[in-house]
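Run log // design_07
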């Protein structure tokens, strides 16, 4: 039997016990966070931003996210077309529309690159608080469309509270350009990989009844069978804030997008994995369409902004046993658009 007598070792063991709620492991390429409720990884290299694909484990049920990651970030964009200067843009910043991938809406990138695929390397920082662990990361855009300059800064906070199966996040853009309707494009909660709906049984869109015209799905719940064939983002289940205005329809009370996980091998039902935008008014457009996978793009902002100003959104992303449970958590935090983090506390802001 090994007996530990060194006072230094005893002191180290005491410190570990004090922070036993979380185990944080950091390598050159990833940050791993483990607690009694969840495991999750954040990548420093490769496909970056948000959480690593398939790494967000719900220990209560044993299920993981079924896509390419959660709260994944792309470009800064605005309405309009880039057709007049496409020959001056790198291929990954050209935005073609009128197709099954992007639909009919004219949009263009103001600044790039697409962070998740082209930034290649970030330097996320870990903040360990008394009852939470947070990760914060930034990227300064290096490319700009003609008539604009690069240099806007994206900042993301991911907060993992003790005893929760979800995390709180925020994405913020500090702009260096003017725009009549600047927005940031993200994946929220994230895309869904599947084969004929084998990884999920249903999708829940809290806003569906207000935006989908006559094809209303009871309670905003859609069976996976509706995602077996590809369709464009503006063909079905598409949310647009400007459409509500034209129809003189009120904003949805809650903005929640979730999918009910299913074990592709056994068919066993799992929990709901939800992404909640805590202030519905910030959402410019939200897609939920099939293009080889279920694409859950969300754009927030879409309002006039001047260089030197910023805009942001706050989210809750994680596992829930029922839609009612999602509603209760949403109502506890609703109305917030930002998030601040220090070693002393994390705080949602309005």
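design_07 sequence
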């Amino acid at each position: 039997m090994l007996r530990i007598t060194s006072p230094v070792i005893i002191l180290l063991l005491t410190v570990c016990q004090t922070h036993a709620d979380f185990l944080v492991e950091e390598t050159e390429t990833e940050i791993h966070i483990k607690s009694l409720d969840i495991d999750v990884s954040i990548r420093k290299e490769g496909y970056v931003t948000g959480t690593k694909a398939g790494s967000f484990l719900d220990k209560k049920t044993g299920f993981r996210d079924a896509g390419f990651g959660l709260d994944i970030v792309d470009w800064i964009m605005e309405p309009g077309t880039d057709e007049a200067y496409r020959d001056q843009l790198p291929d990954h910043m050209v935005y073609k529309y009128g197709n099954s991938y992007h639909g009919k809406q004219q949009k263009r990138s103001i600044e790039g690159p697409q962070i998740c695929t082209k930034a290649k390397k970030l330097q996320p920082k870990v903040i360990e608080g008394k009852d939470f662990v947070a990760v914060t990361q930034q990227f300064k855009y290096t490319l700009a469309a003609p008539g604009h300059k690069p240099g806007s800064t994206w900042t993301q906070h991911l907060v993992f509270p003790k005893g929760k199966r979800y995390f709180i996040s925020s994405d913020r853009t500090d702009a260096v350009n003017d725009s009549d309707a600047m927005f940031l494009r993200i994946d929220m909660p994230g895309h869904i990989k599947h084969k004929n709906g084998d990884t999920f049984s249903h999708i829940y869109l809290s806003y569906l009844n207000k935006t989908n015209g006559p094809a209303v799905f009871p309670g905003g719940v859609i069976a996976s069978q509706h995602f077996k064939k590809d369709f464009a983002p503006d063909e079905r289940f598409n949310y647009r804030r400007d459409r509500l205005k034209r129809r003189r329809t009120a904003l949805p009370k809650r903005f929640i997008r979730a999918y009910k996980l299913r074990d592709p091998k056994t068919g066993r039902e799992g929990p709901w994995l939800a992404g909640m935008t805590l202030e519905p008014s910030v959402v410019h457009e939200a897609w939920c369409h099939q293009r080889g996978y279920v694409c859950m793009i969300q754009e927030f902002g879409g309002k006039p902004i001047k260089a030197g100003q910023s805009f942001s959104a706050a989210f809750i992303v994680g596992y829930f046993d029922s839609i009612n449970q999602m509603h209760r958590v949403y109502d506890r935090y609703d109305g917030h658009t930002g998030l601040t983090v220090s070693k002393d506390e994390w705080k949602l802001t309005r």
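The domain at 25-349 is CATH 2.70.98 (Beta-galactosidase; Chain A, domain 5).
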